[in-house]
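Why should sequence recovery work at all? Because a backbone constrains its sequence more than one might expect. Tight turns favour small or flexible residues, buried strands favour hydrophobic ones, and helices have their own preferences. The token representation captures these environments compactly. In the example below, the structure is given first.
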């Protein structure tokens, strides 16, 4: 892991004619916390391990000019990083300029050079920075007021601040002339902006991400993975499992007790209560990609296995949810690549993306008779097909109009209609169990509409089943493998997904 933790005892450090106390006890994802500056009232951190939230209390006269007073929850880090969190002030507050945000500093003293994302109690939001020890603080104000989501990314010497109202896209600003050096403190800061009072803020969805190296080779180099469960009612996402390997595409078992995901060509069943994964027996099918789906009755699982004797083509198989040494082959050898995306609600058909005649289109195949039916004929890329719970529609994504957008058609392939029309590349529509909503993955426009790459900034978005204005439900570093397969919990209250970081 690239996070380098600093080991401190209870020490006094003299800086700018005052002393500070540093507590080296690990708290959640952080290695320590400290009062920075001559605060009148000691700050504190309360960590809720179940919800993975942090409550930070602090006094302090300001984070400005030549010195800062704040309470700081931190790690020491080197290299590039992405840190993000959802923030919420407690109560109405005393001073309208109480501040919360991410803070990157060279030292734990009041005058340290730093870059910080300052969100004020009155909504003022800015990227602040101090170039030299004890120098004046400057800022780049942002148009957004009182954001709920804040992210700070370092790429070399560039610091990028992204902020959003929950559900909306990020607004972005950056600074590139502040040279803090490679090894820095990175953490969450709270300042009351009134030396005589203590203010509190809560931070949820806190993520400390080490991104893929600039020279990583896609599908040869991989980084670690977080298996996450997002509660759609609260907006809080919990990491339930961390792996140094690439894990991809979680979906739920029908009882809601387990998640099934792909890693290194195998399938794993992850028991949510115990937090332990176990391999699902798939016999000879040991080169499975992340296109695995469960039947609607929860008894079968469909997989896409790359068959070495068939030029490595992805081929469809089914097997019992409990596993099998002899999965049943569904489509014919030599047919071309077949990438699975769903069962029909009556469990009689599979819907998949098939490479036939040098094009990728949507097909169904009868499990019993093995008969394929082609539903789309576009020369563009059609992918991600999935039935609605009533079996009436098939939802999919296509770049036939330029960017990758969401579409739907009747189950026989007729009445194809576009559902999204925005400036994102939208992939993998997953219909809620009640048939009322769609959750999907959105890339920015800096990617090829034919691609859904690993290790990018992406949004998970939700919209009504028949189309409408999408709302962002998660801000994620991920992409390929994040939600390739149906990922709703059986009761429709949660979404499982994968985010990524070096470990």
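From this structural description, the recovered sequence reads:
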């Amino acid at each position: 892991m690239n996070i380098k933790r600093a080991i401190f005892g209870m020490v006094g450090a003299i800086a700018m004619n005052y002393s500070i106390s540093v507590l080296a006890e690990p708290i959640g994802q952080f290695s320590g916390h400290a009062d920075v500056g001559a605060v009148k009232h000691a700050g504190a951190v309360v960590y809720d391990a179940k919800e993975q939230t942090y409550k930070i209390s602090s006094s302090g006269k300001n984070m400005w000019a030549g010195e800062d007073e704040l309470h700081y929850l931190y790690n020491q880090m080197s290299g590039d990083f992405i840190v993000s969190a959802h923030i919420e002030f407690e109560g109405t507050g005393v001073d309208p300029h109480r501040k919360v945000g991410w803070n990157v500093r060279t030292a734990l003293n009041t005058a340290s050079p730093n870059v910080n994302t300052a969100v004020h109690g009155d909504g003022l939001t800015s990227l602040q920075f101090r170039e030299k020890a004890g120098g004046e603080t400057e800022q780049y104000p942002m148009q957004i007021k009182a954001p709920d989501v804040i992210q700070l990314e370092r790429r070399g010497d560039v610091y990028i601040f992204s902020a959003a109202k929950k559900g909306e896209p990020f607004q972005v600003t950056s600074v590139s002339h502040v040279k803090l050096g490679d090894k820095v403190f990175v953490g969450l800061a709270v300042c009351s902006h009134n030396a005589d009072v203590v203010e509190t803020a809560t931070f949820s969805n806190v993520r400390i991400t080490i991104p893929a190296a600039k020279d990583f080779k896609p599908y040869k180099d991989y980084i670690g993975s977080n298996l996450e469960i997002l509660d759609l009612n609260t907006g809080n996402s919990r990491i339930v499992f961390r792996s140094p390997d690439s894990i991809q595409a979680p979906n739920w078992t029908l009882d809601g007790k387990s998640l099934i995901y792909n890693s290194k060509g195998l399938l794993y069943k992850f028991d949510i209560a115990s937090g332990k994964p176990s391999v699902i027996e798939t016999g000879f099918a040991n080169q499975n990609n992340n296109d695995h789906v469960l039947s609607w009755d929860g008894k079968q699982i469909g997989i896409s296995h790359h068959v070495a004797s068939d030029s490595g083509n992805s081929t469809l198989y089914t097997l019992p949810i409990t596993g099998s040494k002899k999965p049943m082959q569904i489509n014919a050898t030599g047919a071309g690549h077949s990438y699975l995306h769903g069962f029909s609600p009556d469990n009689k058909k599979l819907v998949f993306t098939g490479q036939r005649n040098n094009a990728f289109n949507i097909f169904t195949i009868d499990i019993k008779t093995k008969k394929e039916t082609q539903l789309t004929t576009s020369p563009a890329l059609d992918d991600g097909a999935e039935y609605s719970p009533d079996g009436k529609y098939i939802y999919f994504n296509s770049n036939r109009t330029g960017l990758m957008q969401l579409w739907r058609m009747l189950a026989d392939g007729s009445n194809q209609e576009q559902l999204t029309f925005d400036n994102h590349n939208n992939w993998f529509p997953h219909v809620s169990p009640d048939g009322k909503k769609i959750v999907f993955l959105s890339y920015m426009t800096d990617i090829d509409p034919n691609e859904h790459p690993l290790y990018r900034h992406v949004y998970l978005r939700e919209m009504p089943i028949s189309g409408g204005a999408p709302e962002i439900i998660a801000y994620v570093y991920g992409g390929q493998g994040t939600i390739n397969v149906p990922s709703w919990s059986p009761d429709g209250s949660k979404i499982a997904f994968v985010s990524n970081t070096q470990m």
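A few observations help interpret the result. The longest strand covers residues 199-209.
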